[in-house]
Design a protein that fits this description.
This protein is mainly alpha-helical and 639 residues long. It contains 29 helices and seven strands. The strands form two sheets. Strands 3, 4, 5, 6 and 7 form a five-stranded mixed beta sheet that branches. The termini are far apart.
Length: 639
């Protein structure tokens, strides 16, 4: 029995169905077929290798599935090259148009309009029978549209073709979108918000209010960490629509985790978005800005010029004493280098120079190029001379082409001096004084009583009062040949009072004053917060007699609200002024250098101290540092 088992098995394998007798689904009905509804494959094996060899399949070809006929409408639209041709198709196929056709047509209409491949104005387009028929068909089909993105696409074309917001077609799409708003993706929410703000309609206004709520609800589940563009758009939208701080931080953290994948345009987008937030550390998103600035500094030469200009301007506008984290020295260095190497025109260079002035950043190679550009350009000056001259005034730097540059700026000022630009012309005159020249005609107009009263009779800022006083005393002390009007005595006294009140409560006074007292022998040898009769505010005053010995000058009590003058102290011959330096060097900013310059003209010896250096010192280093500065000044005076 055991011996015959393989023989029986072989016999069974030999009597299987013959391949040519198997009937397939599409076989000829007359074909002989002893076996019906069988499988289309036959598995055969050689009997001697039943347990060793793989199965060999004999495959019968699968039946061919007939192709659906091509979509006649979509085929026709492929050859359309104008809106007129699209309308011809619409009129011919109106009753056959469905969701995919309508979406395609509306997108093409907008594309042709944007590419000027049309002869229709917005009014002519809306009155064309083809457009009317298209909108009528959309009214019928839209309620059954399954994809809200198609509704948004149609709405986009209608909005940009200036169809009225109260029209039936717009209102229908808005009602449909209202019911599908929770089905929109983040990118669709953002774009729909943009469209709705162009539509004058109560329903559109209601949707504008609802969309940020939808956005925040869906954010954490829909934000794709691999889609950098969507994350950048989401960050901008969240900030613009005042999303909650945790939502903004969620997007910022997601972007930061993918920062190695950012494109150049996305770096700029992140910075532009963050520039709309005050005090980034409070929101926990400062690391995102730091990363973006680091990357921008490395890619400066690969960023589009316009994007680079806009980004640096945003940096400058956000830089303040409390937001110094916006300053990035490597970025400023790289931009200055690129401007010079590529020889940017004045229209592109002037925003860079203006921002450098705001930052108190100085780059002498850039200033040399910028000065020669202003001196020789044929371009019409589109920026006020104050902003053009400001970076040179901040640096207190006269370039080789300085005289020609000033001549160009003064020529412009002579032709364009107007009352409503008083503040800018006033600051331009300050910049001129800082650099050591005094355009008498301009100063005469600025000091004109009607000009002064028109500006300072309003809510002038502390800076305005300070600069008026600086210009007043600078002209008196450095330009004796000037014979024009000056501010009245009442205005001058008011300036002094405001400057005194604003400076008497500086936090830096306490630490510097105590160090000076310890260095020179005690409280009676140092006095703090005085004015000169010309209006200079002096932080600390000490008096030294020959041999370097301090003199007691603070022996009587005084009313803190009463202005004290340096000239009323006996024996003073040394003063100390605090921080006013450029951001990237140990160089006094121009207007503070002017203050020291004019103060020394009145006979006092000045010891300027860089407050940044002072605050970086350890406590035990501060007294020796101050005394070293005083001794160096004494030594310089004896040479």
């Amino acid at each position: 029995m055991r011996r015959s088992l393989p023989n029986l098995l072989n016999s069974y394998l030999k009597v299987g169905p013959k391949p040519h007798l198997i009937r397939t689904e599409h076989s000829d009905n007359n074909c002989p077929s002893p076996i019906k509804n069988q499988l289309t494959k036959v598995k055969t094996r050689h009997p001697s290798s039943f347990f060793q060899l793989p199965i060999l399949d004999s495959v019968v070809s699968s039946p061919t599935v007939p192709l659906s006929p091509p979509d006649r409408v979509l085929e026709a639209v492929k050859s359309a090259n104008s809106i007129k041709e699209i309308f011809e198709i619409v009129l011919k196929e109106e009753k056959n148009l469905e969701e995919n056709h309508l979406t395609k047509f509306f997108r093409l209409i907008l594309q042709f309009q944007n590419n000027s491949r049309t002869c229709y104005s917005s009014d002519a387009l809306q009155n064309h029978i083809g457009f009317i028929k298209l909108c009528q068909r959309l009214l019928r089909v839209a309620p059954n549209m399954t994809d809200p993105a198609n509704l948004v696409a149609c709405l986009k074309t209608l909005v940009f073709c200036q169809v009225a917001g109260e029209s039936r077609i717009i209102q229908t799409l808005l009602h449909l979108l209202k019911s599908k708003v929770n089905d929109l993706g983040l990118q669709q929410v953002i774009f729909l918000d943009f469209l709705l703000r162009k539509i004058k309609s109560p329903l559109a206004d209601a949707l504008v209010i609802a969309l940020p709520v939808v956005f925040q609800t869906q954010l954490e589940t829909q934000l794709n960490a691999d889609n950098i563009k969507t994350m950048c758009d989401s960050l901008r939208y969240a900030i613009d629509r005042r999303a909650s701080a945790p939502k903004v931080k969620f997007i910022a953290d997601s972007l930061l985790s993918s920062s190695n994948k950012w494109e150049n345009s996305e770096i700029c987008s992140v910075i532009w978005s963050l520039s709309k937030i005050r005090y980034l550390p409070d929101h926990g998103i400062l690391p995102l800005l730091e990363n973006a600035l680091d990357q921008l500094a490395k890619r400066v030469n690969r960023i589009e010029r316009k994007d680079l200009e806009r980004t640096l301007v945003a940096v400058g506008e956000n830089y303040t004493g409390k937001s110094q984290y916006w300053y990035h020295e490597e970025l400023c260095n790289a931009i200055a280098k690129r401007v010079v190497q590529e020889q940017w025109p004045l229209s592109s260079t002037s925003p860079i120079g203006r921002t450098f002035a705001k930052l108190s950043y100085v780059n002498f190679e850039f200033l040399d190029y910028y000065s020669s550009l202003i001196a020789t350009t044929d371009e019409k000056l589109t920026m006020h001379p104050h902003y053009l001259l400001a970076p040179f005034a901040v640096a207190n730097y006269r370039t080789p082409t300085f005289e020609k540059m000033v001549e160009q700026l003064l020529k412009y000022s002579a032709d364009n001096m107007v009352v409503n630009k008083y503040q800018q012309w006033f600051r331009f005159a300050i910049d001129c004084a800082t650099l050591g020249f005094y355009p008498r005609s301009l100063i005469s107009q600025i000091f004109e009583e009607s000009f002064v009263n028109s500006h300072f009779g309003k809510q002038a800022s502390h800076l305005d009062w300070l600069q008026l006083d600086v210009l007043n005393r600078s002209v008196r002390l450095e330009c004796p040949e000037y014979d024009g009007p000056y501010p009245t005595r009442a205005i001058t006294e008011r300036c002094h009072r405001k400057i005194y009140e604003a400076n008497m409560h500086k936090e830096q006074f306490v630490s510097v004053e105590k160090a000076l007292q310890s260095g020179v022998g005690g409280l009676s040898y140092v006095t703090t917060g005085l004015l000169t009769k010309h209006g200079h505010f002096v932080d600390h005053v000490i008096a030294m007699r020959p041999g370097g010995y301090p003199v007691a000058i603070n022996t009587a009590s005084h009313d803190p609200d009463t202005i004290r003058y340096v000239e009323d102290l006996d024996g003073t011959n040394g003063c100390q002024l605090s921080n006013a330096y450029v951001i990237n060097g140990d160089r006094l900013r121009g207007i503070y250098d002017l203050e020291l310059r004019t103060l020394e003209r009145t006979g006092y010896d000045i010891v300027p101290v860089n407050l940044g250096k002072w605050e970086a010192l350890q406590d035990y280093e501060k007294i020796p540092f101050l005394m070293q500065q005083v001794r160096l000044k004494e030594k310089a005076l004896t040479l």
